[in-house]
Amino acid sequence: MGNLAQRLSAKAGGMADVSASLVKALYDQGADVHVALPNYRKMFHLDVAHVHEYEFGRVSRALPEQRIHLAEDRVFYHRQRVYSAKENHLISLAFQREVINHIIPQVRPHLIHCNDWMTGLIPAVAKRHGIKSIFTVHNIHTERMTLETIEDRGIDAADFWQYLYYKHQPHNYEESRNANPVDLLATGIMSADHVNSVSPKFLSEVVDGVHNHIPGHIRHELWAKCQHGAASGILNAPDPSFNPVRDSYIKDHFSVDTVMAGKAANKKRLQETLGLKVDPNAPLLFWPSRLDPVQKGCHLVTEILYQLINDYKEDGLQIAVIASGSYQPHFKNIVETHKLHDKVAVCDFSEDLSHLGYAAADFVLMPSSFEPCGLPQMIAPKYGAMTIAHDTGGLHDTVEHLNVDAESGNGFLFRVFDNGGLRWAIDEAINFHRLPAEVREAHLQRIMRDAKTRFNHKTTAAEYIRRYEEVLGQSISEPLGASK
């Protein structure tokens, strides 16, 4: 529940597919939706029951009975973080135990939709009992654990052990129980009736072996699903709260028709807040994602940061880094060493500043080395900001290089993943920023309208509904057969 985690200030990543808006969109398109999630009773001194009510109130009120099912276990109750490296396997098993032992028998679903390794056992259980399942892969990360560990947490793995993916080919249950670990992500992929990544391009990259960090067995299982026509890519969508017309985190609201004035007002407010030089004409680049050099490419920015500021001194180029992460000290060190405080701001992530960043920025930086989906590049155009991105994964699916003459594109893509490629794309962006205001305005208005149509939960829900119907072999608007 990535959206829930954000409301709890836990920032649990980009797994935003299961949110109130998507659940509501699925229901509005005919799906009888139930949602299972851990009962995080207290987190950051918040009563999670109130958060659930806020997030899912529209769904609950629209349905004839409660559709939110809370998995109960002490491991959830008094946590201060959604994820914890030392306890992730315990959290995962506790949640799956409750779903398998209580929620599935209570709901008796025709189809179960699971997400990532934390729910990897559930498609195997579904297969054992003849229930259809879809498994969504957000991040290529997995965990392994033995049948003994699984069973010690209250899950009767002996009932479905044949449908699990093991480190080695299993000979029998007894032989495998203690010494042949189960791979949870591979199990979810193998046992599900359909698998989807959250980007069509990222799925093809994994299957084609583009990324060396993808485990071979995971790649093979996804390849096998593709070969059988049982895999696809479905993009996530930003939360509807990202809307410059009514964004509760910004004070200077604007629409397509007032984009230039609105962005100018927000730019001034951000500059004043972060200590940047107040300059309405300065091209402003915004870094929105966690500062992770392994995936996000933040090191490419630091490699050219000083030269970039110096080369575009006359333009007054500014960069706002509103993000936490291991690489943040490198940015701060460059700013301090070269006294760039009025041109480069670096601060920890906060929800209000991040929203203001989108509203103020001319360009958003996303030079990721790989990207399973990404949301900032879909949020940015809603606020009249253009994304500078590496041509990979979800960025490839959502960012098209600008062609001013053809009146097409919504950002700037570079194909070679190095600082030279990033610098080329930034140069392209600054060239656009130097165009007359009326030319830029026409393109930003076009981009904002397109983003509203493309990047929303209604569109995402329609794709999932299509997969549900393919797996079930019938329209969800028709009466389904008796529950199994």
Q: What attributes characterize this protein structure?
A:
484 residues, alpha/beta, 6-stranded parallel sheet, 4-stranded parallel sheet, 20 helices, 16 strands, 12% strand, elongated
Tell me the number of helical segments per DSSP (H or I, 4 or more residues long): 20
Strand order of the largest sheet: 13-12-11-14-15-16
**Distance N terminus to C terminus?**
27 Å
Oligomerization category of the chains in this entry: single chain
Question: Which structural class should the secondary elements be placed in?
Answer: alpha/beta
Summed up, what is this model?
The chain has helices spanning 2-7, 20-28, 48-62, 74-77, 88-107, 122-128, 147-152, 173-179, 184-191, 200-207, 216-227, 259-274, 298-311, 328-338, 351-360, 376-379, 393-398, 419-433, 437-454, 457-472; strands at residues 35-38, 42-43, 46-47, 68-71, 111-115, 132-137, 144-145, 182-183, 194-197, 231-233, 284-287, 318-322, 344-347, 363-366, 386-390, 411-414. It has 484 residues and is of the alpha/beta class.
